Structures are given as C-alpha cells and as structure tokens.
Amino acid sequence: MKCVICKQGETQPGTTTMTLEHDTTTVVFKHVPAEVCETCGEAYLDATTTRHLLHIVEEAARIGVQVDVRSYAAA
Length: 75
What we know:
Elements: E1 11-22, E2 25-37, E3 43-44, H1 47-62, E4 67-71
C-alpha cells in the first residue's frame, strides 16, 4: 500500500516497536508485526494486532503496572 504519511513509499511486511500509554501505565512492545513504509519507516498495524495491544495495556493499567517492556506475542 502507498504510505499516507510520506506519500512516496510503499509498505512492506516487517516489525516495529510500539509504545502505548493508558492513564499512568506505559507499555513498550517490541517486534510488533506491521506494514512498514520503505521510505519513511511509518508503521501500520492491522485491526487484530491493535485490539490485542490495547487489551494488554488496559489489563496492565488495571493491575497497577507503571512501565513494562515486552516482546510481542500473538494472541
């Protein structure tokens, strides 16, 4: 797909690092599967991956985690 940020590059399958925050909780996910722009590096996640990450962050916030760094694992 054409990158909507730089409007020049095409995306390719790859991985990215994603940082998500919820209230006072910050979770860093490494090795998240994504479509990554070959020109600017912008990463696009699919809906299933996004829902999975949001669920993890909400659960971490619920139990009081402040900062966590994880390698991505599919649901």
